[in-house]
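Re: the request from the purification team.
They wanted to know what the chain is likely to look like in 3D before they choose a buffer screen. I agreed to run a prediction and write the result into the notebook, where they can find it.
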Amino acid sequence: MAREGFALFDTTIGQCGIAWSGAGIVGVQLPEASEGATRARLLRRFPEALATPPPPDVQRAVDDITGLLRGEARDLSVIVLDMERVSPFHRRVYEAARAIPAGATLSYGDVATRLGVPGAARAVGQALGRNPFAIVVPCHRVLAAGGKTGGFSANGGITTKLRMLAIEGAQAQPGLFDNDGALGFDPRVAVEHLRAADDVLARLIDAVGPFRLQLKRTSSTFAMLAEAIVYQQLTGKAAATIFARVCALFPRAHQGPTAERILRVSDERLRSAGLSRAKVLALRDLARRARSGELPSLAELQRMEDETIVERLIRVRGIGRWTVGMLLIFRLGRPDVLPADDYGIRKGFAAAFKRRELPTRQQVERRGARWQPYRTVASWYLWRAAERASLRARRRDAARSPASAPRPRSGRSRARRGG
């Protein structure tokens, strides 16, 4: 057998390691707490391996692994593995796990059933717990019964497992992502990903504190878009007042105006509530599309890709990409939205990265590439950075204001003090 070699390589989840022989890959090491720890763990597993540049076939495997962990579509099933040291049963388990596509999951029991031994779920779990080919044999895609995460022996444990699943686009299941069910991702995993991906964002997260995005519920796609139209280009307080007046035009509509009611009411009554002519036209276009069935339902939106939602909704008069981006974040809880043109995002970016000038959209997007697939969470923290910057500016202005300077004492006061 040819002498084994090993190399370390960077990925979005940290520095991984890979070892190989003349017959194929003998092991993949997930990140430990430091580069030194990763190297030491790999050498404990393969003490005869020498640090050397990977041969072409191993380099292709490294490229595919790093691409997969960036969220790209990569087929790792073609990577050749050297299973000389693996028992026959473990080899069957690993081959079954390699057949699970990215974005999908199976339970230990499912894998056992596929192997023809339905009572061997525990043995499957033990085999995957000893998996020497992490990522290439995707043991992170195998869960415990009921969609629970099960164990994971890599550094970071279940957090690392959830992070890898989220990067691959695995759908949230009851018990998999431990939140209140409102968001389609685990906020803790997202925050840890951002900490590891960007030191500046990590400092901002420390300064701001926990991620607390709260989704706003809605009764229908029409109601969601109607409120968005009313709120455009207004302060929150002014928009809320006008929207309340619009709702008051339909006192029996407990969940706000419907498409039919908007089409029946006159322009004059809508304008009397405080709506501009442009917003009246936008609401009527929205109502016509809702009545004709052009608007996707909330259930349909949940199944659609972000860009498809944008393409469908910007057909409505008065609805642009920015508005849809806000809906994706605050109504649908999508994890990877970065409204790079938003003034608050750009202001927060300038504050966080200590820039005197506001960045361009392209600059925000370039930096934001490292935040994928959790750019929504990064956006939330940038908005908080903008708020903090505004508060500091107001405090500085107040400190410099003449009204805050000590007032000179009147002559009468000085005379009294000196008398």
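For the purification team: Strands lie at 5-11, 14-21, 24-29, 50-51, 106-107, 142-143.
Please add any questions underneath this entry.
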